[in-house]
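As a warm-up, study this chain.
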Amino acid sequence: MSVTGLLTGFIEELRAVGIPVSMVEAIDAASALKHVDLSDRAQVKATLGATLVKHARHADAFETAFEIFFGLRTPSPELEERREAADRAVIQSTGAGSGGDFDADALIRALFAALRDEDRPLLMAVVRHAVRHLSGMEPGRPVGGAYYLYRILRELNLEELEAQLLEMSRGEQALTALEERLLREELSTRLEEFREELRSEIRRRLVADRGPRAVARTLRRPLLEDVDLTTATRQELAEIERIIHPLTRKLAIRLAQRRRRGRVGRLDVRRTIRTALSTGGVPVDPRFRKPRPGKPEIVVLADISGSMSTFARFTLQVVYSMAAEFSRVRAFAFIDAIDEVTGFFGPGTEFGEALGRISTEARVVWLDGHSDYGNALGRFADDYPEVITPRSTVIIAGDARNNYHDANVPALRRTAAAARALFWINPEQRRYWDTGDSVIGSYEPVCDGVFEVRNLRQLASFVERIAIPVTRPVRRIA
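Now compare it with the structure written out below.
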């Protein structure tokens, strides 16, 4: 593949994974590469990173794509045979094997020696030998790299190896708690380096077999802002928690700027006439009053049952992180009953602590603790009529799966009639709406908008939309 084709494929992969790369940025990257040594991967990587990546949270996706398209290639069969012989000689030089057929125990002993002595040449020989003999890779086999990595690690049993290294490093001396912790962290770092080298070697061999584009598709992972909140892993949720505050802060700044640069205010007749005196009374330069756009009141109703609890958590967190952009925020949680939880988010309260109190103190269960939207909406309309004013924007967050209870559409209609606008955000994919016990279709005609919101990007886009008030009432479908 030519350099141009490689760069084009790389940029297409960045776009496919969700990293925004404009045509101008692509041209800048190609131009910048003319001024670096293309044989120096570090220079090429730094150049592409500087011209194509704009957010630190995109760095991991960039790293993966770069290793696929610009990683070291597997040598020819002749060179590979010589390298295998050299790797076997390096491993045998440690006394871990005696030549001949592959010996898994000898490989483990060589890995132990490489990690103990921090011998990188030996470690790389072990990596290549392990991938050749333990991964089970076959040409043309449509299997992802994670499977091959799993096979290798299963045979090497790194947990036992780490325990042996720890025991050997301790020796007979008594370590303090700090020394013990530092030792464990050091060994974990070495083992993680070994795992990363295994991933890189597997990736190189897959690229040599299938080409970079095919491998990129198998290793592609969504950006954190595109991860489905209802199915995210624990690690992904922790990473999302880490980026949500900078994301909402940036969103709040953008909204404040848009509000300041809002449309012009009403015509200022007095100033217009006074200005027109200089043009013979012709108002060629009309003057306008400074616009004073109002901030909406937000009322959030969040389903916190089952898998919806994670979605509700991030919905509430985004809204409350941007509370300054709203004149007032009130929050209600529900399962089959509803309770106000605004007070749990007082000044100085940790968000995690507030969520813990909601799950233990809020009165959100009426009968069996299964979602009953009809009863929750009915109780909200009956018990909290004063909450909704003509300035209120109501957001209902939930999948509208009602466990075959009565949907109680009239209760939602009463709330919608009293509010300025009512929106529903649903974390389910649209193709699953109105299947099974979903009643979203019954509620949709009453709402000013029903949106599929499955990730942080969609959630931020929705909040940005409702934070800028419309200038006329929204027409509802009867």
